[in-house]
Write a structure and sequence with these properties.
This protein is an alpha+beta fold and 229 residues long. It has 8 helices and 5 strands. Helix 3 (65-74) packs across helix 8. It is elongated.
Length: 229
């Protein structure tokens, strides 16, 4: 059945193409437009393939921290936060999990010993957890995981450090290590990957632009092109 359907569709398509070709003369407006579109598309594919190979071979992909810092310092107005971001330790455990009292002490503590105990506990008993308190996260992403109810997210962040909430089956513990309110300047660490991509794209555009200019100058020098007034 599949083979028959494939053959039938193929035959219908070929018949339609043949009919269209028979009724569109080489000089008709529609045929000329199609021919031009095909040529433009072919040219675009060839150009894109060449530029991609040029970029692959010649683009410098190493972006130093100093370059990222310099771009950030010179373009801070472009890094205004659209959302609230936080640094946080987050643990979700079942209400029946053991040693909840110890957990309540560990998640608040910054001592290496307690941090190790917390990590070991989470690997054994947590339903979900995130312990990297040095990395910025979107507050909205955290709210998808934790049943926090607040009408003013900015006020919540300003006046809460340790947060404990629950639902019917689980307990949630948050240690908010830091936050930035939307419309403030985004920290460099949150924008680092974005800036690296911007710098790489600028390099790519410059490389392609320089290639085109070199090609043009070489053609002029070797009289491959000529301008007439």
């Amino acid at each position: 059945l599949l083979a028959d359907r494939y053959v039938s569709n193929w035959v219908h398509e070929k018949l339609l193409i043949k009919k269209a070709e028979d009724n569109l003369t080489d000089t008709s407006k529609e045929y000329l437009e199609i021919d031009k579109k095909l040529q433009d598309y072919r040219n675009s594919l060839i150009t894109y393939a060449y530029e991609s190979e040029l970029v692959r071979q010649k683009l410098d992909t190493i972006v130093r921290d100093e370059e990222i810092q310099k771009y950030y310092d010179e373009n801070q107005n472009n890094f205004e936060l659209k959302d609230n971001i936080i640094k946080v330790r987050y643990i979700k455990v079942n209400k029946k999990a053991p040693d909840i009292l110890k957990l309540k002490n560990w998640y608040k503590s910054d001592s290496p010993k307690d941090s190790m105990a917390l990590e070991n506990y989470c690997h054994q008993y947590a339903e979900n957890f995130y312990l990297d308190g040095n990395t910025w996260l979107l507050f909205e992403d955290l709210l998808k995981e934790v049943p926090i109810e607040t009408y003013n997210k900015e006020m919540f962040l300003r006046y809460n450090r340790f947060v404990e909430v629950q639902d019917s089956s689980s307990l949630y513990f948050l240690n908010i290590k830091g936050f930035k309110i939307k419309n403030s300047i985004s920290p460099l660490s949150f924008e680092k990957d974005k800036i690296r991509k911007i710098i790489m794209n600028k390099r790519k555009l410059h490389l392609i632009s320089q290639m085109k200019e070199d090609l043009f100058q070489d053609a002029l020098k070797n009289k491959k092109i000529e301008f007439f007034e």
